[in-house]
Amino acid sequence: MNLHSLRRLAESRLREAGIDTPDLDARYLLEHALGLTRTDFITKSEQTVSETDAARALALIDRRVAREPVGRILGHREFWTIDLALNPDTLEPRPDTETVVEAVLKALPDTKAPLSLLDLGTGTGCILLALLAELPNARGLGVDLSPLAVEAAAGNAERNGLAGRARFQTGNWANGIRDRFDIVVSNPPYIPSAEIATLAPEVRDHDPRRALDGGPDGLEPYRIIAAQLSTLLVPGGLAAFEVGQGQAPDVTRLLAAQGFHEIEQLRDLGGIERCVRGRNGLTPRE
Q1: Would you say 122 is a known binding-site residue?
Q2: Is 244 annotated as a binding residue?
Q3: In whole angstroms, how large is the CA radius of gyration of the chain?
Q4: pLDDT digits over 121-158, tens only?
Q5: 114 has binding-site annotation
Q6: The Release factor glutamine methyltransferase N-terminal domain covers which part of the protein (predicted)?
Q7: Is residue 39 included in any domain, yes or no?
Q8: Do 178 and 116 meet the contact criterion of CB atoms below 8 Å apart?
Q9: 71 belongs to an annotated ligand binding site
Q10: 91 domain-assigned
Q11: Is residue 75 part of a domain?
């Protein structure tokens, strides 16, 4: 068959399987399997595809039909302006998390300042590395309980030319950290334990449970981090957290109880309150 026919067959299989974006997913997977570019689908649409190449491409389509996420199949995922490799111990970064990056950048009066950042539960390093890409004089530390996640994050720093300003270590949240930071960010596990079984199979079956399970009410990691913030942030330092749907008021209360002010709830592109941002104690000028 030719490339056009193969693409249509791939899209049809994905559509019949109920995949939300069959056209886009088929293009990504065929590009990967056949070593093509987006332009090739236009300029080479009549080009014959060998049986071997077609079988290799359709094997990836079958994995997507089985609800394996495209990012897992490709082994990497774009986030903000960077590209991130994944492994089994990392949460797959999603566009919702870019709300945290945007919230931090909008709160900074000087993006050229020599800021220090801490990312708790860093996973792929997505939040920290996206911020470092926008803050040329900043440095950051990412912490994760999983050594494999730390390995992935360090590799992603190298992959995106940020290794000189990012370091990563294993740890249980901020336990043992003695430094103070200008900014603390986190996308902690926030799914209530009993709800994990109801998640989409792309999440439930492929993201590590450790990165999903937020305890009985989904708020346990926020309680732990909130109690540590006063010793982690400089006066007036900024904290920003991704939150699950409906959790913003609870996380706001946790920050307020720790003496935070200027607390705001920011919405993602879907209109969900996805990020809670606040400042620690008095501002430096006060």
Answers
A1: yes
A2: no
A3: 21
A4: 999 999 999 999 999 999 999 999 999 999 999 999 99
A5: no
A6: 6-75
A7: yes
A8: no
A9: no
A10: yes
A11: no
